Amino acid sequence: MKLQWDHIIHYIDGLDSFEFPDELLDLHKGGRHEQLGTYNYLSYTDLSYIEFIDVFDRDLLEKAATDEQRLSFAATLERTGYEEGWQRLCFRTDDIEALNDHFISCGLATIGPSKMSRTQPDGQVISWQLLYIDDDRTDRELPFFIQWGESDEVRREQLAPWFQPLRVVNMTLMTQNKDQFIQNWTDWFNAKYDDNQLLIPDGPTFTLMEGDRESIEAITIAGIDHPSIEVHGATYHFQA
Q1: What is the CATH number of the domain that holds 124?
Q2: CA dist 177 to 2, 110, 123, Å?
Q3: By C-alpha distance, which of 40, 26, 90 is closest to 221?
Q4: Residues 85 and 185 both lie in one domain
Q5: Final residue before a domain boundary, out of 162, 179, 213
Q6: Which of 33, 129, 165, 187 has the smallest C-beta neighbourhood within 10 Å, fewest atoms?
Q7: How crowded is residue 194: how many other Cβ atoms within 10 Å of its Cβ?
Q8: Are 144 and 184 found together in one domain?
């Protein structure tokens, strides 16, 4: 069972008219999540990416937030009062059933795996399965987990034209209980902890800050020489 960082979600109100400042990142129209009332644009580095998301039907989203999709990334928007900025992390696995069994063995309740899909502008349907940890002991919007309907090799071939010569190398996370946060990530996600950073193979490092809230504070993208910027409530750092 493999676990890798897959994507991070940035909510932007008015995404249809959004352009990333100074065109630092390329955005490609993703599609619509018909079950959830959301749509997205994607900025790929490799198979990992930044997902920019907005809502096309708030009534549909808020209905979904009360049923089996109450832990979904879309429901997060409703829970956080549609505040722009970083929303959720997602990790990719190659065996979501085994991952579910692992979480249950850790004493966790889960929702899923559930099948999802979206329709791309060209009519192609992209499918995947999602898994959520159902833990009401934290105020943090926990990471969720995805298994794509096609292999990494097939997806890499399909998505290669969108890849940018960039890499997300770090994410800064704030927590009110650093010790518990570290314990959870090492137990649940088999992360390693060293020098104030959590490490998961083949992905960015996660730097922890202790503070007064549970949040994603910033990401750092390598391959761009540019000052840090705040974009619709989300902080982006860059390094050459």
Answers
A1: 3.10.180.10
A2: 27, 22, 45
A3: 26
A4: no
A5: 162
A6: 165
A7: 8
A8: no
Of 118, 135, 162, which residue is a domain's last?
162
pLDDT per residue rounded down to tens, the chain (240 residues): 789 999 999 999 999 999 999 999 999 998 888 778 899 999 999 999 999 999 999 998 888 777 667 788 888 898 889 999 999 999 999 999 999 999 999 999 999 898 877 677 677 778 899 999 987 766 688 999 999 999 899 999 999 999 999 999 999 999 999 999 999 999 999 999 998 999 998 889 999 999 999 999 999 999 999 999 999 999 999 999
Query: 0.90 cut: is pTM over it?
Result: yes
Q: How many structural domains are present in the chain? A: 2
The residue among 1, 11, 30, 44 whose CA lies nearest residue 117 is 30
**Segments forming the whole domain that contains residue 22:** 3-162
229-238 as b/e: b if 16+ CB within 10 A:
eebeebbbbb
Indicate if 31 and 138 belong to the same structural domain: yes
